[in-house]
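Q: Structure tokens for this one, please.
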Amino acid sequence: MDKNEQLEKIHGLELEIAKEIKRICQIHNIPYFLTAGTLLGAVRHGGFIPWDDDMDIGMLREDYERFLEACKTELGERFFLQTWDTVPDYPMPFGKICLNGTHFREEFSGDAKIHDGIFVDVFPYDNVPDDEKERKKQARRCRICKRLLWIKKGMGKRLRKGPLREKINYWGPWLLAQILPYEAVKNYFKRILVKYNGQETQKVVTCGSYPYQKESLERDWVTHLEQIPFETEMFWGYRDREAYLVYFYGDYRKLPPEEDRDRHHRINVDFGPYIEGCGI
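A: Here is the predicted structure, written as tokens:
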């Protein structure tokens, strides 16, 4: 199977996962929105970015918690909800809906003992403090906690052989990770993430793969939504997606160089029972 055919199958299965997420959200009236590269793909390509291999959905924290609770009874048996509370060795502060019977291993996740099925990411968004000093403090703490957790669970090992900056960003936290208990760091991280959710703030943030500042979005973007086409389906997305895409990507209509298009570095993909097609 060549790379293009593999990506086409990944996209088909991720779309089915996203439809399951949408179904649950519709039943329970849970707002959600396409974000990051998925929203870019919807606007620029009418669906998946041709070379991208993931799908990103966001929710405000309250809606995210309602979604996790709904998954306990609504999620179809072909799917699996992966969070740092459902899988002890999964260290990320966001969830994944994975497809059972498949395998999708990225170089970054290495030998981590997690559910490695083909997935769609679901990101919770929390309040960003308006005070600049508090904002910088939260950003620093989130960055350290995030790195400590995935290092403790065996992720990011390729950074050890990267450029000097990457090595420093790996080995510095690695030393601290040998001392601090995983559960203590995770629980502290949870408190930091939601610390400002009782306040009225102009921005919200999620702890994804981008830096805190870039992931900090205007609240109006994520609360004013409209349905937009994505492949063969309709999903909710930002109404002011032009402003978001310019903020996040700059000249988002310009395609990146080919050498910058494989960001996730897949090392193993197994379609399991879906090898002959993408229907679920």
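A few notes: DSSP finds nine helices and eleven strands in the chain. The mean pLDDT is 91.
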